[in-house]
Each structure stands twice: as structure tokens, then as C-alpha cells.
Amino acid sequence: MKKTNRWAQAIWGVLILLFAGLIYAWSVLSSPFAAEYPNWSKGSLSLTFTLAMSFFCIGGLVAGLLAGKVKEWVICGISAVLFLVGFIIVSSMTNITQLYLGFGVLAGLGAGFAYNTVMGSVTKWFPDKKGLISGILLMGFGIGAFIIGKVYAGFLGSFSWRQEFKALGVIVCAVILIGGLFIKKPTEEQIREYVPAETANKAAKGADFKTAQMISKASFWLYFVYAILLSAAALALVAQASGIVTETSPNLAAGTIATIVGLISVFNGIGRVIFGGLYDRLGQKKTMLLNCGLYLVSVLINIAALNAGSLALVVLGFIFFGLSYGGVTPTNSAFIMDFYGVKNYPVNFSIINLNLLLASFGGTAAGVIYDKQGTYMTIFVIMIVAIALAIGCTLLIKRPNEAKNN
Length: 406
Description:
Layout lengths: L6 H14 L5 H4 L1 H6 L5 H25 L5 H20 L4 H27 L7 H26 L5 H20 L7 H5 L4 H8 L6 H4 L3 H31 L5 H29 L1 H25 L2 H16 L1 H13 L4 H8 L2 H5 L1 H13 L3 H20 L10
Helix pairs in contact: 1-6, 1-7, 1-8, 4-6, 4-17, 4-19, 5-6, 5-8, 6-7, 6-17, 7-13, 7-16, 12-13, 12-14, 12-15, 12-19, 12-20, 13-14, 13-15, 13-16, 14-15, 14-20, 16-17
């Protein structure tokens, strides 16, 4: 019997996440806000990104709870409308509360709805490549920030940022709305087409954990803390990336700054595919330790860049940081499927993503620290401590006993 073509699902999934991932372009999208409203501090602006990450998690959780009860196209439709309304509000804002509502709350929720629906549906088509497909899908989510950020910055000379936000809202709404019509979960028969024999044997023994069972395991909480630590470190840098570039080279044009900052997104996307594939080959522990090591290298390069005032080192540091941050998200997905099974993946995955509710404060904290100290060095020192703690969590994680009574 001929196998169902699952790669069409992957293509539509990547396209949706490419546009839903524009919330990660915050550092570039927010530059005109800072110029038009100079009284808004770095800390208050960074809170927008924190809200976006927080409501992204909430949207993902709601989408996970709706999975199986509501068609995928309905959830994607909700995401599309949230993005449209949120961006229209931002395009006409006159105060920071409207920015918080439009970008932080509505766009954040929209991204969460699209993200969980695509991940929860498309990954089920790839039981034999859970790390790789997670990386491919999440590459789209990460690299979208670079592409959209570049287009946004490139058109600022011809159009106002308000006009661009309206246009972005319409485009994102249309892509998610149309793409959502094609996203569907596979049937049990279609899943079995791709399940390797050894995986089928494990599944037969009962490898699926309900959410309540999952959160009762020490392995879950150790990984949850690991994800918080590394994600907070990454989001702290993402929120302040433009400022770091400007500090080393204050005369750079806005387009050049956007390109350099966008390298984080580009290599974030590449890192997601690399680490997704590595998880399939190396397993959980080696992949997580390798990721921590790459994080440490990236932080040390960025410290050297600021000390030397070297733009070249900033570029190198951003590349390494993008690769290391890219390793976290596919590991989240692969870890949940690997340790707790596929059956309850949509909800379990949304639970592990709640780490961003706490991690998102990394960006706000970085803005507050900079406002008070006028330097990024303290931020990087805190990142090193976070990486050391993440290594400790990794070494303590043990595979849970098989689930019972599912």
C-alpha cells in the first residue's frame, strides 16, 4: 500500500509558523516605537515582549485543550483574527497600554494558537523522525522573524511603521487562515504507516503518559527548569539585541542593525533543524549537554565583543547564540514525545511550553538591569549562572517508568 504524502503537511506547517513567528522580530519591530515615544523606557518596552511570550504560552495551552474537540482550521482561524485585530490596534496606538494589548496579548495569543495546532498535528505524521520534524517546523517559526524583520525595516523609508503594521496584520491573517484549511491530524492507520518496528513495540507496552502523570515526574520538572533557564537567557538577549549592536557600532544604519539582529533568527532556525536531528541520533542527555555548552560559548563571545567594542565578534556571538537558542525548542517537542508519548502530546507539549511564562521575564529583567546600570555585562554574568544550573538539571534527568492505566 502506498504511503500517504506527509511532507505536504510539513510544508503547510512551516508556512504558517513562518508568519506566526513574527512576534520574535520584536527587537526590530519595536525600534520605531522607541523613536516616536522617547519617554518609554527599555524596561517598559521590554514588558511588551514578556506579555507576548506569556500569552503565547496561554494560547498554546488553550489550543492544546481544544485539540481533538475542534477542527484544526477553526483554531487557525481564531489565530488569524487575533493577529489581524492585534496589529490594527498597534497601528493606531497612542499609548503603551494599546501596545501591550495589541502585540503583547492578542498577537501573543494568536501565535500560541497557531504554534500548538501546527506542532500538535504535523508532528504526529512523523513518529520515526520526531526530533527532525520538530526542528524543521520550528525553523519556520524562528526564521520568520528575520525575513519579516528585514522586510519591515526595508520599507520604513517608504511607508510609516503604522502602515506596515496594518499590512502585516492582513498578510499574516490571510496566510494562517488559508494554511489552516490544509492542516490535519493523521488517522491511526496513517500513523502506523511510519512507525518503526522498535517504536511500535515500545508503544505496545504503554509509553503514553496523561498530563497528570507527566507532571508528577521529577524528569518533567527538571526539564521544565532547564527550559526556563536557557529560554530566559535567550530572551534576555533577543530583547536587547539591537542595543548591543548599537553600543559597539553607534553609527550603523537601521537596515544593517536589523540584518545583524536577524542573524539570531536565521541561525535559530538552522539550530532547530540541527538539534532536532541530533536528538534523534544522540538522545536526550547528550543533546541537552551539547546545547548548554554552545550557550556558554556564545555568552563568552558576546562578553568579549562588548569589551573589545568589536562588531565582528557581536556578529559571531549572535550566530552562536542563535544556534544554541535554536536547540531548546525542538528538544522541548522531542523530549515530550520521547519521554511521555504521542497520545497526549498536544496538551503535554503546551504544558512544557509554559516555561516561557517565567522565561519571558528574562527580557524585561534585562531591560530593567540595563536601565539601572547602563551596561550589559551583568546580564551576561547572570546568563552564565543560568547555564551552569541548566547543566545540573540535565545530569539529574532520568527516564520515567512506563505509564500505567492509560
